[in-house]
C-alpha cells in the first residue's frame, strides 16, 4: 500500500493501528515535520514512522542519538539502517563518522561513501554534497549538540592531489570552509572524503554546547 497523501495532517489524526497504515508510514514524507520534534503529535508521528523503518525517521533518530543524546552506538545503528535503505544524508553522515573513527572502520566508511556514486572531484562541485551539507547544518541548528568528532589524521595514499589544506584545527574560518565551493581541484577519493570529514567535524564544533 502506498501512502495516499504526503501530508502529516492526513496521518496525525489517525491511529495507525492496522498493518496497512503501518506500511504506509514507511513511505510517507516527513518534510513538514520538524527535524527535531517538540510537539507531542509530531513525536508520536515520528515514532510510528521509525517503527515502520521509514528511512528519514531512522536518519533523524540516528542524528539525535549520536550528537545530542550521547547514545553513539544506538545512533550508529539507526544511521546504518537508514543507509541500507539508500537514504543519501544517512550514507553521508554514517560514512563520515566511520572515517573519523579510524582504522578498519575508516576503510568501511570509504566503501559506504562510494555508494553515493559522486562525480569525480576534479569534475567540479557536487550538488549532492552541497545538499548533504545544507541538511546537516540545518539539523544541527535545531538541536543541542553535545558530541563532537575528531577529524581523521589523513590517509597516506601517495597521490599527487592539489587539495587545499585540511581545516581540522581551524577556528575563525570553520564556517567559511563549510560553505566553500566543492571544487577542490584534482584529488583522489581518499583525500576528498578526508577533507569532507574534517569539514564535518568543524561544523560540529561550531554548534557544540559548552
Automatic annotation (TrEMBL):
PANTHER family: F-BOX PROTEIN, OS05G0482100 PROTEIN. InterPro entries: At1g67623-like (IPR040338), At2g35280_TPR_dom (IPR057136). This is At2g35280-like TPR domain-containing protein. Residues 35-141 form the At2g35280-like TPR domain. Pfam families: TPR_27.
Amino acid at each position: 500500500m502506498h501512502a495516499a497523501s504526503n501530508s502529516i495532517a492526513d496521518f496525525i489524526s489517525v491511529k495507525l493501528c492496522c498493518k496497512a497504515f503501518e506500511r504506509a508510514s514507511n513511505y510517507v514524507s516527513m518534510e513538514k515535520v520538524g527535524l527535531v520534534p517538540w510537539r507531542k503529535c509530531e513525536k508520536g508521528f515520528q515514532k510510528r514512522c521509525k517503527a515502520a523503518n521509514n528511512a528519514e525517521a531512522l536518519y533523524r533518530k540516528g542524528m539525535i542519538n549520536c550528537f545530542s543524546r550521547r547514545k553513539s552506538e544506538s545512533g550508529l545503528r539507526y544511521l546504518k539502517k537508514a543507509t541500507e535503505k539508500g537514504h543519501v544524508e544517512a550514507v553521508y553522515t554514517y560514512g563520515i563518522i566511520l572515517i573519523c573513527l579510524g582504522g578498519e572502520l575508516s576503510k568501511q566508511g570509504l566503501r559506504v561513501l562510494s555508494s553515493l556514486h559522486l562525480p569525480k572531484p576534479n569534475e567540479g562541485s557536487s550538488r549532492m554534497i552541497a545538499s548533504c551539507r545544507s541538511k546537516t547544518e540545518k539539523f544541527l541548528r535545531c538541536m543541542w549538540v553535545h558530541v563532537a568528532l575528531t577529524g581523521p589524521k589523513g590517509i597516506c595514499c601517495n597521490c599527487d592531489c592539489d587539495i587545499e589544506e585540511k581545516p581540522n584545527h581551524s577556528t575563525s574560518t570553520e564556517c567559511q570552509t563549510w560553505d566553500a565551493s566543492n571544487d577542490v581541484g584534482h584529488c583522489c577519493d581518499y583525500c576528498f572524503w578526508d577533507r569532507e570529514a574534517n569539514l564535518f567535524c568543524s561544523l560540529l564544533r561550531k554548534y557544540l554546547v559548552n
